Amino acid sequence: MSELDNVIFLDTKVSAGFPSPADDFVSFDLNLHDYIVNNPISTFCIRVTGDSMINIGIFSGDILIIDKSIKPRKNHIILAVLDGEFLLKRLNFQEGNVVLKAENKYYQPIFVNRNRDFKVWGVVIASIKKFL
Asked: How far apart are CA 51 and CA 35, in angstroms?
């Protein structure tokens, strides 16, 4: 990921419901790289394809920022490799075994047993959406 240019950040809240007047606000430069990335050496981006995580707002075409230095814990959204295939799922455990849960009711959980080749590549720390 290359260094992102600074963009103007308006230090005010925006209502997603009823409008509220914004009398005063302060603007300053916000470097998106510095805001999102805590560990540059272990951080990378990947583009999403598919719809298994739509219920938490991750859609096909989104770009995810993944940090490999974060120890994956229960309920983290992870990028994993299972039997040679990349997967984006929520990490859970059941009776000491790994369970990969989709965030779409049309997908069944994946139960990972010891016979499968499984590795966590990193934890999702942010998602970037582009509307235009």
From this structure: 27
